[in-house]
Amino acid sequence: MPLLGLLPWRAWAALLSQLLRPPCASCTGAVRCQSQVAEAVLTSQLKAHQEKPNFIIKIPKGTRDLSPQHMVVREKILDLVISCFKRHGAKGMDTPAFELKEILTEKYGEDSGLMYDLKDQGGELLSLRYDLTVPFARYLAMNKVKKMKRYHVGKVWRRESPTIVQGRYREFCQCDFDIAGQFDPMIPDAECLKIMCEILSGLQLGDFLIKVNDRRIVDGMFAACGVPESKFRAICSSIDKLDKMAWKDVRHEMVAKKGLAPEVADRIGDYVQCHGGVSLVEQMFQDPRLSQNKQALEGLGDLKLLFEYLTLFGIAEKISFDLSLARGLDYYTGVIYEAVLLQTPTQAGEEPLNVGSVAAGGRYDGLVGMFDPKGHKVPCVGLSIGVERIFYIVDGFLMILFVLIFGTTKGEKVRTTETQVFVATPQKNFLQERLKLITELWDAGIKAEMLYKNNPKLLTQLHYCESTGIPLVVIIGEQELKEGVIKIRSVASREEVAIKRENLVAEIQNRLSES
Amino acid sequence: MPLLGLLPWRAWAALLSQLLRPPCASCTGAVRCQSQVAEAVLTSQLKAHQEKPNFIIKIPKGTRDLSPQHMVVREKILDLVISCFKRHGAKGMDTPAFELKEILTEKYGEDSGLMYDLKDQGGELLSLRYDLTVPFARYLAMNKVKKMKRYHVGKVWRRESPTIVQGRYREFCQCDFDIAGQFDPMIPDAECLKIMCEILSGLQLGDFLIKVNDRRIVDGMFAACGVPESKFRAICSSIDKLDKMAWKDVRHEMVAKKGLAPEVADRIGDYVQCHGGVSLVEQMFQDPRLSQNKQALEGLGDLKLLFEYLTLFGIAEKISFDLSLARGLDYYTGVIYEAVLLQTPTQAGEEPLNVGSVAAGGRYDGLVGMFDPKGHKVPCVGLSIGVERIFYIVDGFLMILFVLIFGTTKGEKVRTTETQVFVATPQKNFLQERLKLITELWDAGIKAEMLYKNNPKLLTQLHYCESTGIPLVVIIGEQELKEGVIKIRSVASREEVAIKRENLVAEIQNRLSES
């Protein structure tokens, strides 16, 4: 499934996905509902609408519908992601869309204000889940599970300022894989990175890089630079913005808004420019400031071991130790990572397609213990695939592909149904025969359609097959009925053959298995 | 996939699914969080917890987690349902979990109060979707789609008093299939009933019946009995409760709470006892009161045509014209239907397992027009499969099956992973070799696991395979490494053979394709 190939398609994608998006009134703004329908059965509801002449038909800010075309692309991406998770031995799981608000509080640092709360309608105070990690930790603690490798695909909700053009929504789908349990160091962590590589390679999104760091190195760096411990998480949140903001703006935030001394900020500035392979790990072991910090040394030791395993997995060249990586969420305690797609140099005037990180994760050894009455810990490490952003990229690309390869030539489209056979008739008053015939096909497990008309024209029926990509037509008319035969027509070649009625299902199954 | 067989398993199911449910602390009530963990990195969060000594770890009322065992069953059910929808030519679609509150208001009759509203955090007023039908109608109107056959699988939320023991939750999954568009009468309606039959037969839930009526017959019956038009929908809601309440209680509600004259209620009482096949349709054409009502006659005419098509589809004997069927939702305008599992006579002292309707739907020709600025209508008919209730039944049954067939004999369990190969070693210091080996397998698309330990014992590794059902083990040790071979072991037969290292992937693929 080569979903994406070589470049300069990114700028194209941005443009074309705008041009080609399915018709959507939500973009065009207000639509007034004047309710001209007036049936007795609907009276009461209609009255309500007539009383609201400014009633606007739209979807909530930052959300979107997935059209059948979108769904085809999404299904392909999810299939690839889930089959990778299963290849690594993960079990499936699901949790409710909302949790008690208390469960989610104080887990997300500065972003906690972006949670969607439910209205107090009497009863518990609830919030929509903000990620799949905290519900997983709650599940482990609640059920006293000490060891588990699971995946979870589901929607999460965040009240972010939506910048929809770059694939960020307020409702989006995450695909998470996590390993919970006490194991020898860095083996599960390395597997998480291997999984990220397999998925990003599999989706053929072009070249990518996974930035790696460790929360203990981040904190050690802060301590070594003179950041007061009480400001660790706040400064961490600022550093996390380095992929979207320039250093000078991040520095300004740390100094002016968060009260960091300018010389401390500048020391941090020296470190966050560093990135490299395992040699940078060795170099940091010798760093005069970091080498004095016990936490940082632990982190560096683990990263060294991690790189050893990554080499055995054959993915070391995809990984970059990057001291600017901090990750915003509060719960990380060890190794952290984030995958980015590598931009190609765009031509003059082309807007680079910036989708930010497409996958991320890390180790969170303290989260489960926060939910356990006795504080018993279950160490965890995991990753999250940002399907929405990948979807945005792949979707943009697929649309170009259809235009370039099919659209401009034969009018062929992406199929949104899987129908194999169409039941047609050239005659009037053949509805009964069509219904009997299609029942036979359905009952044999064959995907079949017909038009919901008593007397459709043959041409209309054949056009339907061509426009929806149905490969086979079975035709029944007076003559066929008399002779006990059915005509099978190939839509592509327009060839027709008559076969015995009783052989119909077998013959179709035969043809479908050949194609 | 014979998920369910013959009976008296229902009473068993209720009992056993209680006994066998995975450990779940939510049932045991309050758990105090005393937070004995105290790491620097977690200080801020922990403080928050220490300040809440009564913090309770549980999930929201009326919701549940799906464990890996549950997910295996759910996936089987959804696969069967979705493949049926695709067999009938439906496209996939998705909409956001919440809609503007105004979109959902006035669509659900008396049940509208059960909607989950989101808190007003500035911006739009939102509610969680209550079904998948209203979002579908909103989608059609917003995108000016006049014709579409789509399916939609997704969660919906209703603040009902949860009676979890009968498979009713506040968060549950629906599988909807709908046909939108102007077609010749009753052909799409008949297909919806055919789909319900295919799914319920496919799931092998035991014998079932689909009750059918028409909103125009219901309204005609009300008019003929002397119900004032303003009370139609309210009385409809009362009638809808007949599957859960006795007639005398429903009558009391209509008379005492809704102000219906007792003699009118009694006239309705005579009708709602009637159910039967197409002969009852003929009989009602002759009914002195109904035959005077234009609406009722239209409904009866359509039902007659419907039965003709159902006979051609070979499912007429599964369908019962039932005058007690009303359906609570406001938006239905034509034929309505509801599938129920037929109870077997339970033995004395056994509680019958009442799961209510497992699938339902009907025609709603006015809903899309309510969202269209000019009131343009798009006639629709559809159905919804209540996966949660089916899940409850199948789940209960599967658990019995495992106990009876596997549990008591060989300790075999339902597999929650799909891992095909386990990478093991009998020697110390073989982590590197195991990592290289498993990389080869993963990169060849083989589902593989190993233990995350530097020096695991061979017995521990083999036990892991037996307890998780992994069929093959590949073993590498010093001797194998020296000779350039790998041992392959079948977990079931315990047979081992040595093969050349370079043939490993091919040999495993060969074995997996045979099994």
Automatic annotation (TrEMBL), chains A, B:
L-histidine binds at residues 131-133, 158, 174, 178, 327, 331-332. Its EC number is 6.1.1.21. It is an enzyme of class 6 (ligase). It holds the Pfam family HGTP_anticodon. Keywords: Aminoacyl-tRNA synthetase, ATP-binding, Ligase, Membrane, Nucleotide-binding, Protein biosynthesis, Signal, Transmembrane, Transmembrane helix. One of its GO terms (cellular component) is mitochondrion. GO terms for biological process: histidyl-tRNA aminoacylation. It comes from the Eukaryota. It catalyses: tRNA(His) + L-histidine + ATP = L-histidyl-tRNA(His) + AMP + diphosphate + H(+). The keyword Repeat does not apply. The keyword Transport does not apply. PROSITE patterns: AA_TRNA_LIGASE_II. Belongs to the class-II aminoacyl-tRNA synthetase family. PANTHER family: HISTIDINE--TRNA LIGASE, MITOCHONDRIAL, HISTIDYL-TRNA SYNTHETASE. This is histidine--tRNA ligase. It comes from Colobus angolensis palliatus.
